[in-house]
């Protein structure tokens, strides 16, 4: 490679990897980028990833930015809040120190929520937020939808690692494990989903041939 083409290659890489649409804290930049690579459909969507001191009952939370709520769907903006700390029993750990792949899976799940939100109209989204506050069944539906979108985008390996980290970590509080089991897809369900997805891809590629 000549010097000139090398330099333009570097410039090209810098431009493509640092998207103007995505605001990302440096300490987990690599993990966010890895997850975003699975979601080319979100390339033009404004998303800010931001650390927060603490989030009630969860580690990460994706939501539409309030100020963009009444904009058109195309211009809707999102925030992914990430709790600075992660509690295992009575010990607190920094979220940025969670194993890299586990973090990627976690972020992939949040991006699944954003795809879900993008598919909803304004009124639908208001209803959605309302029901999330008051209906347990609705939380189950929303969380499973996020997992489903992540698997549909090919992130199953990461999603499974995240689940394994939570469910098989002996020191994670049983109440948190129960919450995960209650609201999210199980590893077995994910495997079934991956099989179905691959069968569908195979069927459609046969059809296209
Ligand atoms: Zn979720």
Explain this structure.
There is one protein chain. The protein is an alpha/beta fold and 209 residues long. The protein has one domain. It is built from eight helices and six strands; from the N terminus they run αβαβββββαααααα. The strands form two sheets. The protein has a four-stranded mixed beta sheet, covered by helices on one side. Helix 4 packs across helix 5 and helix 5 crosses helix 8. The longest helix is centred in the C-terminal third of the chain and has 22 residues. The N and C termini lie far apart (38 Å). It binds zinc ion.
As for the number of domains, it is 1
**CA(first)-CA(last) distance:** 38 Å
Proportion in helices = 55-70%
- Tell me the total number of β-strands: 6
Number of helical segments?
8
Structural class: alpha/beta
**Range of strand content:** 5-15%
Condensed summary:
Helices cover 56% and strands 14% of the residues. With 209 residues, it is α/β, with parallel strands linked by helices. Helix 3 (100-118) packs across helix 5 (136-152), helix 4 (122-134) crosses helix 5 (136-152) and helix 6 (156-167) packs antiparallel against helix 8.
Features:
alpha/beta; 209 residues
Secondary structure: elements and pairs:
Layout: H1 3-17, E1 22-23, H2 29-37, E2 46-52, E3 60-64, E4 77-83, E5 85-88, E6 91-94, H3 100-118, H4 122-134, H5 136-152, H6 156-167, H7 174-183, H8 187-208
Parallel strand pairs: 1-2, 2-4
Antiparallel strand pairs: 3-4, 5-6
Helix pairs in contact: 2-3, 3-5, 3-6, 4-5, 5-8, 6-8
The structure holds zinc ion.
Zinc ion binds next to helix 3 and helix 5.
